[in-house]
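Q: Please design a sequence for this.
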């Protein structure tokens, strides 16, 4: 999990749909890693950037994203931004695209 990740407030109490729960979890984790990568690249912290890349590389095998993929596009968005940092490219628009807070 990204530094500072707190799973308690991840899923709002009014979210009851399995897909939406998965999207909230994916958003919290992915946004944390993408934020870390972005800050690390700006500050020159190669270790933190590598850590974020390694974590996001695993997103393609997150079982809940694979299950969600047939029902919607949120997993594809996560993978798009993950693939960008794997290629050392800025994940432009990820905060809006994933709904990061």
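A: Design:
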């Amino acid at each position: 999990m990204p530094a500072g990740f707190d799973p308690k407030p991840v899923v709002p109490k009014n979210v009851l749909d399995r897909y939406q729960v998965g999207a909230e979890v994916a958003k919290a984790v992915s946004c944390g890693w993408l934020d870390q990568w972005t800050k690390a690249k700006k500050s020159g912290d190669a270790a933190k950037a590598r850590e974020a890349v390694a974590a996001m590389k695993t997103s393609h095998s997150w079982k809940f994203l694979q299950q969600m993929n047939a029902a919607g596009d949120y997993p594809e968005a996560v993978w798009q931004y993950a693939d960008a940092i794997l290629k050392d490219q800025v994940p432009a628009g990820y905060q809006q695209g994933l709904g990061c807070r």
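Q: Thanks. Anything notable?
A: DSSP finds five helices and no strands in the chain. The first helix runs from residue 18 to 43.
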